[in-house]
Amino acid sequence: MFNIGFGELILILLIAFLVVGPQDLPKVARALARALKYFRGIVDEVKQSVNLDSELTEISNVKKEIQQTVKNVNPLNNIDNEIKDVKEELQSTEKVFKKSSNF
Fold first, then answer.
1. Most exposed residue of 3, 20, 53, 77, measured as fewest CB within 10 angstroms of its CB?
2. 89, 81 contact by CB (below 8 A)
3. pLDDT > 70: what percent of the chain?
4. How many whole angstroms separate alpha carbon 5 and alpha carbon 78?
5. What is the spatial distance between Cα 81 and Cα 13, in angstroms, rounded to a whole number?
6. Sequence ranges of the domains in the chain
């Protein structure tokens, strides 16, 4: 995570030992570990929130696509078109019969 080598780690521990002192060093280490755990938890929550937001956006887009597809493939629209075609054919046939009966 931090790309710290063994030599750098020893140097950091030596400086911490000199600054904090040998008696308080374990307390400070525990406090730092707790703080690091807390911040990792916050980062994980933010990542999950961002993932949920992107998933919700994706679901919303899929829902819109499905609604558009259903609208385009609505069987009633097809039936209406068929009925109109049959009605036009019947009307044209009726005109032909009327013309032929007038002779």
1. 3
2. no
3. 94
4. 72
5. 82
6. 27-102
- Cβ-contact 12, 4 below 8 angstroms: yes
pLDDT at 51: 87
- Burial state string for 54-85 with b = 16 or more CB within 10 A and e = fewer than 16: eeeeeeeeeeeeeeeeeeeeeeeeeeeeeeee
- Per the CB < 8 A criterion, the answer to whether 26 and 13 are in contact is no
Read off the tokens for 55: 């998933």
Cα separation, 45 vs 39, whole angstroms:
10
**pLDDT over 70 (residue 1):** no
Neighbours of 7 (CB within 10 A): 8
Q: Which two tokens stand for residue 30?
A: 């525990």
